[in-house]
């Protein structure tokens, strides 16, 4: 059926490791990759893939072969369909002499014809209210409706008869695809009186439909085609066939929930987006995306269900090695409504303000507890200890540090205390024992007296606080200092336990010349600290560096810093600060 040249071209165009990796979690093992066999019950990885020889073999069940064999077995396809679909994946157009009417051909061609019929029906002028809803209410342009081939099912028998007479579509094919429902001897359109959204596979073939109810009708707001051999929601991402080029170029993808959310993003100029068709993000979805990027930006619904879905998706994506970020929608439910209510700029701005996934997790879980109490802080830590442990196990230092910093900012706990809990060296209860008062160090009292007594020096105070080893009490006040707030504004917001210490600092005042001298002493202390840290960093590098030229350069820099430190130290340490 297919000659050797075509088969070889397909096999050489598809990396077997990448394709198998969509279905099997593979780990590198020497020159091979291995994982749990998908063809038998496997608990100890016995399934091997050779990138060099482009074949696979399972030492457990004995199955083996090339990329075509694997695809045949994993998708349960006949050879001809496997070749045809792999040719699509590889971007290879099969010569006409190889064209065969496979079941896959019949399925996708029938749905493609139906998609075009639905689309023409929408633009026929027979349903102005539906078109007005899409153009005026949803804010889509006619160009976007044409790009996505949005249609409408009128729900009458005449429409179905025309499909048969004008296009030669067999109703039995549409019945198999789940588009039609048979009652007694009659056929009925599952999507009757609905706006139709064609759903494509990664290669651009129509494999199913989404249907949105029109205003004034009753029933479920959205429905999808039932799952078939070729349409499985957990393995299909809406708009991927259109988005994959821009995803690869920009090296990130925006993940949203529904069709209209995805279309709104497209209308706003954000083409690198996909939708999860109202289902949970799955490992299969992630395997598809891994081909194009390792960076995910979630833009899910703003309700509790959407936030919970985001949290689950973050956990799954991070376990697969993705970098994650979350854009939070406020004031409205989803991306589609945000676009409709506030326009494309609001969507673009929302994405620009995305935060790391690790920070979103802390922010969201912090809303479930009262973090103003020791008990609430303890609960937040207990929520996040498993996440911190996973980061440590995966050696994901970025995720670990982001989470620790976010917890510290929420709870005012020391970073070293949180790390001690994460690594099992301390119990949350121990570091969160409630203190009757907060104590300020003398250097902190000096800074507060300067801050409140001399507003013109507040910028200088705000600059040095980042470089000091400070108490928990002072760290609590830093956020107010950064905003340059007055005493009356701060006293209304602070914890009552810190009040006495703050009052004591305010009562102590000094003239401007003494304030400048004190601030200069503190800045000198900060300068010494920074220089010492730089020398320590050079010493760490010197212990590892091998290159003689690099070593000499580091030694010269160390001598320069040592001389600078000596000049800074001249006159002795500043009052033990």
Q: How large is the count of helical segments?
A: 27
- Biggest β-sheet: count, sense, barrel? 5 strands, antiparallel
Structural shape: globular
Number of domains: 6
Low-confidence stretches: 572-577
Strand content: 5-15%
What is the fold named in CATH at topology level of the largest domain? DNA primase DNAg catalytic core, N-terminal domain
CATH class wording of the largest domain? Alpha Beta
- Give the helix level as a range of percent: 40-55%
Can you name the CATH architecture of the largest domain? Alpha-Beta Complex
Distance between the termini: 85 Å
CATH superfamily of the largest domain: DNA primase, catalytic core, N-terminal domain
Strand order of the largest sheet: 1-2-3-4-5
Class from secondary-structure proportions: alpha+beta
What is the number of strand segments? Answer: 16
Radius of gyration: 32 Å
On the 0-100 scale, what is the average pLDDT? Answer: 86
Enzyme class: transferase
GO molecular function: DNA binding; DNA-directed RNA polymerase activity; zinc ion binding
Zinc finger (CHC2-type): 37-61
Pfam family, one: Toprim_2
Name some characteristics of this structure.
53% helix, 11% strand, five-stranded antiparallel β-sheet, 577 residues, alpha+beta, DNA primase DNAg catalytic core, N-terminal domain, DNA Primase, Chain A
